[in-house]
Each structure stands twice: as C-alpha cells, then as structure tokens.
Specification:
Blueprint: H1 13-32, E1 36-37, E2 43-45, H2 46-52, E3 62-64, E4 70-73, H3 78-88, E5 96-104, E6 108-109, E7 114-115, E8 118-126, H4 131-147, E9 153-159, H5 160-170, H6 174-185, H7 189-198, H8 203-211, E10 216-218, H9 219-228, H10 233-251, E11 258-261, E12 274-280, E13 288-292, E14 306-312, H11 313-323, E15 333-339, H12 344-355, E16 360-364, E17 374-381, E18 384-387, E19 390-392, H13 394-404
Parallel strand pairs: 1-5, 9-11, 15-16, 15-17
Antiparallel strand pairs: 2-4, 3-4, 5-8, 6-7, 8-14, 9-12, 10-11, 12-13, 13-14, 17-18, 18-19
Length: 409
C-alpha cells in the first residue's frame, strides 16, 4: 500500500457535525445577501480547465469519459458555474447571485493538515460591473468568518489591472510578463528581481517594476506610493477603482481591516481587476481568496462581468479547532444497551424507540463502545434495563430517553 495513514483518514461524525454547523451559518450569510444556493457539476472537460489553470494540470484528478474524452474532477467552482450560467441565462444584463458549498479537488496545505480535496464555500455575483459589487463581495466573505466567531482578520486588496497596465507600459513580452507573475505568485522576490534587472529599463520604469512586489502594507501609504509609480492612465484607473472598493468597505465598517498588496498574483488565470485575500490572526495562509473576472463569461456566450470568492472550510475548521472556537460537542446518541442473548422484547423496544426519534443502539456483551458517544449506558436482562444503579421497565426507560432527547446533538 502506497497510501499514508493521513491520506486515508476518515471524517468522523463529530467533525461532520461541526462542518454542518459551520455550513449552516455561512449559508445564512449567503441568503442574507440575496444569493441562491447552487451546486455545480463534479466533472468538467480537461481542456477548459487546462486553458485557465495551466499550473494546476499536474495535480488535476483526471478520468476518461465513456466517449474517450478526458475529464477532471473540478479543481475550481467559478469556471463551471460561469459556464452553466452562460448557457442557462443568455441575457448578459441579468443579475445572478449564487452561493455554494461543495468539494473542490486540488491540493491544499494548512499548518497541521493537507489534502487532495477540500470543502469550499463561496459566492459568485454575475452581471454587476461596479466597484460597489466588489465591496459587497468582500464584506460577504468577512461576514462568513464573523458568523463562526472570528473577529481578528486582515483583508488584503490588490488589483491585476494595475500590474497588467504596468507591464503594458514597460512594453515587455507576454513570456516575460508571465515569468514575473509566476514569481509574484510564489513570492520569489529573488527571481523577480533577477528577471527585472535583466530587462532594458531605466528611470521611473525600472523603479516601478522593482517596487511592485514591495507594494504592500496599510491602505493609505501604500496607495500613495502606488499612485506615484503610475506610468499610464490605465494604472491610475485601476487605483481609482480600488479606492471606490475601499470606500465601500469603510462605509460597512471594515476600513481598519483593509490593507493593500499590489504583489498579489494568482494561479487562477481569469482574474481581470480586483483580487483579495482574507487572513486571520497571524496565519501564513489565507482562508478566503477571490476577485473580479469580467472576461470569463464571454468564453461561453454572453459577456457578463463578475466577482466572487471561495473559502477553504477545511482550513477554517483547522483554525477554529486550534483557536477553541468550535462548539462543545454533546453525546451523539441517547442510549447504548448491551445484552447477553438476543431477545424479541429488546428488539421490539429498540425498534419502537427509534421510530419515536430516539437514537439507541443495542450490542452484544463482548464488544466495546465509546461511552462518551452516549448519554446513558444500560444492560438488558429479563425484560428490564439496568442503568446508573437503577432497574427500569421499558416504559420507565422510555421516559428517561425523553428526558435525554435534547442533550444529543
């Protein structure tokens, strides 16, 4: 067996219950913003993903369809959602707001966990081109975290449009631009500087490129420095737009959480303007990432501007576990009954109680169970139940079950 134990780990009931409670809360946030809950197809054409995510090709999980074509398990939700919306709703002016919770099949790494798939919750808003839409999307993401008790967070704002406009002003090749973007995504400042210094640039053009990965920090000073480095009108326009996003965040009470990061690049190849990430405390990885992708829909039909984000719920669960934010778990079941020999009366009692909604289990003496899973343990003998030093009739046992019903999650 080549699989490690960690790769084969099951998700147990207690963890599933915690995920369920988290999911309920974030779905409530989605609904409060007018999002309809949807589910995207699990499989997608390999070539569609290969076009937008060339860096993910090696880690995509592939399979062969019945007609011989190559399919992948979705490594991203945005692409299939936008593709489906383009087919089902061809009027590009129609506003579509979607929320989802689904499994994404690609690698992730946390502080103490990693995996080849994870549960992702997210929101996509299609049809609204305004900076105010971007602001609401970011606020929705922050509310996801607030809904599960997270108060300390940092929102990093960036813009692909500023970087693209800079590269256009420098008149570098697309290959050189892609190499620089790759270094930015990996935060490889040494390689970025080597490439930048090899280019025939001088003066303000050289300074603007070398400072690009260093443009991060508090909103005001970083924005001022970014403005001073503008080489064309497109760079100024990108800053004008992100300033309006910041104004929306300020009006919603999130201005103190907002920082700038103009060095933010992403392996998701469809972002066209705003990009953002949300970090909690001093975590080195983000729980939320997203941005604006105005040109994706037109690849499948109607031109439709869009903005959205995804949140890795596995990383969120890890953080909440480490921070003590998960709800206290109660026992999952009311009663476990052990018995020495099979009894028709015991079978009848257990069946009747289950039909009434009680969670009860019978097991043979000789097996062991985890007592913490049950509110009470009992031994069945000759038509009676011995539990907690008492001998109870079936009717008395049922009354005790009724008293315990509310204690089980």
């Amino acid at each position: 067996m080549n699989k490690t134990l960690d790769e084969m780990k099951m998700i147990h009931e207690e963890e599933m219950q915690s995920y369920g409670r988290i999911q309920d809360r974030v779905i409530s946030v989605m609904l409060s913003h007018g999002c309809k809950i949807v589910q995207t197809p699990s499989f997608e054409d390999y070539d569609s993903y290969g076009t937008y995510f060339p860096s993910l090709r090696k880690e995509m999980i592939k399979t062969i369809d019945s007609d011989g074509s190559v399919l992948v398990l979705r490594p991203d939700v945005t692409l299939p959602l936008v593709k489906a919306a383009a087919i089902e709703f061809p009027d590009g002016s129609e506003l579509l707001k979607y929320g989802y919770v689904t499994t994404v099949f690609r690698n992730y790494y946390g502080m103490t966990s990693h995996g080849r798939d994870f549960l992702q919750a997210g929101v996509e808003v299609l049809g609204d081109p305004t900076p105010e839409c971007d602001g609401e999307v970011i606020v929705t993401a922050a509310e996801f975290l607030e809904s599960v008790g997270i108060e300390s967070m940092r929102i990093d704002l960036g813009t692909v449009a500023y970087m693209d406009a800079l590269f256009e002003a420098l008149e570098i090749s697309e290959r050189q631009a892609d190499e620089l973007r790759s270094c930015m995504e990996k935060r490889n400042l040494v390689s970025f500087r080597e490439i930048a210094e090899s280019l025939p640039l001088s003066g303000k053009r050289r300074t603007a490129l070398l400072e690009l990965p260093l443009l991060f920090g508090p909103y005001g000073p970083t924005m001022s420095r970014a403005r001073s480095l503008c080489l064309n009108g497109q760079m100024d326009q990108a800053l004008d737009r992100i300033s309006r996003v910041y104004e929306y965040l300020a009006s919603a009470g999130y201005e103190k959480l907002a920082h700038q990061d103009f060095g933010f690049a992403s392996h998701m190849g469809y972002y066209s303007d705003l990009v953002f990430r949300i970090y909690v405390d001093d975590a080195l990885y983000s729980l939320v990432s997203g941005g604006r992708y105005d040109k994706l829909s037109e690849q499948f039909g109607p031109a439709r501007p869009a903005c959205g984000f995804g949140m890795n719920m596995n990383l969120l669960y890890e953080y909440m576990t480490d921070s003590g934010l998960l709800d206290e778990e109660g026992p999952s079941f009311q009663l476990a009954v052990s018995y020495d020999r099979f009894s028709k009366n015991l079978a009848a009692d257990l069946t009747r109680w289950r039909k009434k909604g009680y969670r009860v289990m019978g097991y043979r003496l000789g097996n062991t169970v985890d007592p913490s899973d049950y509110a009470a343990m009992a031994v069945y003998r000759d038509g009676s139940y011995e539990t907690g030093g008492e001998i109870l009739s079936p009717d008395e046992m049922e009354k005790k079950l009724e008293a315990m019903k509310s204690c089980c999650t």
